[in-house]
Amino acid sequence: MSDLGDSSSVDPDDLDPYGDDPYGDSSDSGAYDLGASTGGGDGGTYRSRPGTRSHPTTSSSGSAARSMKDGTAKLIHCASKDDPYATVEVGNPNGREGLFSVTVRFVNEDGLYLPDATGEVSVPAKDEATVRVPVADSGRVDEIDHCEVDDWALVDE
Fold it and tell me: What's the confidence (pLDDT) of residue 18?
């Protein structure tokens, strides 16, 4: 164990974190003694300035997958009493298969929004797929006047 001495006489406001050693060892240009002994004898402690790394960081090799772009969404069919599902066509502009989500807003004849519903679909690379999104509250399907869908489908990475 390292004996750092009595530091109660040292005023913390007088210390320079990169200057004088508060423990009286001026030979190491202000490095801090972290007390991690590497063996017996003289000079057996690890010294480092605060904020420095003891090991270099590894860099990315560039093989990480690129982020995917959001897809397109197009309303094909709105929900009705006979078919309580909205059908949405989702396009994938990416070079690999992806999972996309779409939100359908159901609107009544007064222009008020009923509860939204969300659907997900896996779409092959550079292709399209459809998803059927159920009405969130099937008891209110008779109130639906029309459906709204954003022009994009969010990619779920």
Answer: 54
Tell the burial category of 16 from Cβ atoms under 10 Å away from its Cβ (0-12, 13-18, 19+). Answer: exposed
* H-helix or E-strand spanning residue 90: strand 85-91
The DSSP bridge pattern shows strands 152-155 and 98-108 to be antiparallel
Q: Which residues pair with 133 in a beta bridge?
A: 86
pTM: 0.58
Q: What is the pLDDT of residues 105-144, one digit of tens each?
A: 999 999 999 999 999 999 999 999 999 999 976 568 889 9
Name all contacts of 25-33 with Cβ < 8 Å and 24+ positions apart: 33/2, 33/4
Nearest to 47 by CA among 72, 62, 28, 74: 28
